[in-house]
Amino acid sequence: MECTIDWGGRDGMLFVARTGSGHVTAMDGAPEGGGNNLAPRPMEMLLAGAGGCAAYDVVLILKRGRHDISGCRAELKAERAETDPKVFTRIHFHFTVTGKNLPAAAVERAVQLSHDKYCSASAMLGRTAEITHSISIEEA
């Protein structure tokens, strides 16, 4: 896996990331930190990556279990340390899974498997943060 990060130049704190898979995304800082608020903060990108990794797992596990899933949303709320390095200290994942006749036990199992076994991003962040999760199921 590869990634290249380029600074946008003298005015501001805009950075552009180019991934090994050929995608481009921008990151910026808050105005009080010299940024112009043109893109997500790098730590927001890290949190979003963990949410995407876990949601991907949940959907894949439920699809492999032949459940009729039509939607999955992961909402993450994080707290950070007050001093540098301001690592994440707590992260709560709330999954809203939509489908037809989804058994709560299957959704819980998918979320737990993601957390315990499959989500690399959560595993890394779990070294500094207490990670919790909850679910809700909506009928399609």
TrEMBL record:
Gene3D superfamilies: 3.30.300.20. PANTHER family: PROTEIN YHFA. This is Putative redox protein. It comes from Paracandidimonas soli.
